[in-house]
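It would be a great kindness if you could assist me with a short task in structural biology. A protein sequence and the structure tokens that stand for its backbone fold form the material at issue. I should value your view on which stretches of the chain appear to form regular backbone elements. The record follows directly beneath this note.
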Amino acid sequence: MKNRWNDDEAARFAEDPLQMRVYTSRLIGSDEDLVLHGGGNTSVKTTIENLFGEPEDVLYVKGSGWDLATIEAAGFATSITPTPTRSSPYPTPQMVNNESAICMATASCSSRMSCRVSCWPGKSRR
């Protein structure tokens, strides 16, 4: 197996976990000994700023229909789990709407994949 990692190229994505995952996914996908055409899964956990300017934990997961060798940031579905608070232990409509807006704003939803927004651990909506 040939090491395709390029420090200079990877350094361009050091501040953006999703773009770094795109880079590493393409490296894996470009080696036919590692994945079948179109196969494979990659993901990355990170924190983004939500519509209220608050940090929000997200998980970007490679969506169906995307080839690892050519994947783009738009090929990662976004999964967001709201953090319960003492005043609001269950998701409110505002929380769910905020998560849906983040999903759409990050271009993570497309007709080629589903975007899953976790409303509460163990429950989700599409």
Observations:
- Confidence is low (pLDDT under 50) at residues 110-126.
